[in-house]
């Protein structure tokens, strides 16, 4: 049991809540884009497996790739690999297992998802090395999570569409914005170790402004996507409440950070983002089905 809990902690399994609601939005939109809506329980299972295994592989690989860096950082030295709770070799086996399960799950969905699965893996795994050479690492992380709504839509529809792509842009800028906030904790460490991040490159004020700009773009995308849902499917009520709550959570994050109280970063990062994504997804599903 302790080993299972250690691996759950390694991949921060509870944080799956960030992208999973957006996958639900992409899935539901895909269902209603079909000529005749149908419910495929197995398809939901395969999409869920893709989401979980891709994220498990990405997070575990990130912890493995950063094990030596984490050991030097007082904030991260007690993570599972540097602390010796999980052996580095076992973490790599866990990564490989989840990567294989991801590709196999994608192969059960449709040929397009199967063909794109190696590219998706390359993005989510490749992110782990970007901090070594580019402060654009936050955007690469956002790109990885932005695959959730588009991937779920492709799983159902088998083709691209502008609406789920709009949600993907929203996720990219949302995640990049709050990852910049999270990285504020390591400004000095990143500079000392010659690691690249927006806070290390542009300082506290510059990072706050860039995070704000990204979240403004995110809010515009969410608002426009909500409008398109209203126009295309006649939805109202739930989508607007969810949209409003999402934007309020974005504003709350920015207020916390601009006050300069870094001790509340975990509140901005975990609580606000979990509430935001859930509210948006629940509002959308309610409007489509209730």
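Q: What amino acid sequence fits the structure above?
A:
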């Amino acid at each position: 049991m302790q080993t299972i809990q250690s691996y759950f902690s390694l991949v921060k399994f509870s944080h799956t809540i960030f992208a999973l609601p957006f996958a639900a939005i992409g899935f539901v939109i895909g269902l209603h884009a079909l000529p005749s809506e149908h419910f495929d329980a197995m398809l939901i299972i395969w999409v869920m497996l893709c989401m979980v295994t891709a994220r498990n592989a990405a997070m575990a690989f990130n912890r493995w790739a950063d094990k030596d860096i984490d050991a030097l950082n007082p904030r991260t030295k007690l993570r599972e690999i540097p602390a010796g709770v999980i052996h580095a070799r076992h973490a790599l086996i866990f990564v490989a297992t989840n990567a294989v399960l991801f590709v196999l799950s994608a192969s059960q969905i449709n040929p397009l998802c199967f063909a794109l699965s190696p590219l998706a893996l390359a993005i989510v795994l490749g992110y782990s090395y970007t901090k070594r050479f580019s402060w654009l690492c936050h955007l690469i992380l956002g790109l990885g999570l932005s695959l959730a709504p588009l991937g779920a839509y492709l799983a159902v529809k088998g083709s691209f569409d502008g609406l789920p792509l709009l949600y993907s842009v929203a996720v990219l800028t949302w995640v990049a914005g709050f990852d910049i906030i999270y990285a504020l904790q390591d400004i000095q460490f990143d500079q000392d170790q010659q690691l690249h991040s927006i806070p290390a490159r542009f300082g506290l004020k510059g990072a706050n402004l860039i995070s704000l700009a990204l979240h403004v773009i995110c809010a515009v995308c969410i608002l426009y996507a909500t409008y398109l849902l209203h126009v295309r499917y006649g939805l109202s009520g739930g989508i607007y409440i969810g949209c409003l709550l999402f934007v309020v959570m974005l504003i709350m994050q920015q207020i916390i950070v601009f006050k300069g109280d870094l001790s509340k970063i975990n509140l901005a990062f975990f609580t606000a983002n979990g509430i935001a994504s859930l509210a948006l997804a629940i509002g959308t599903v309610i409007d489509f089905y209730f």
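Q: And what stands out in the fold?
A: The chain has a mean pLDDT of 91.
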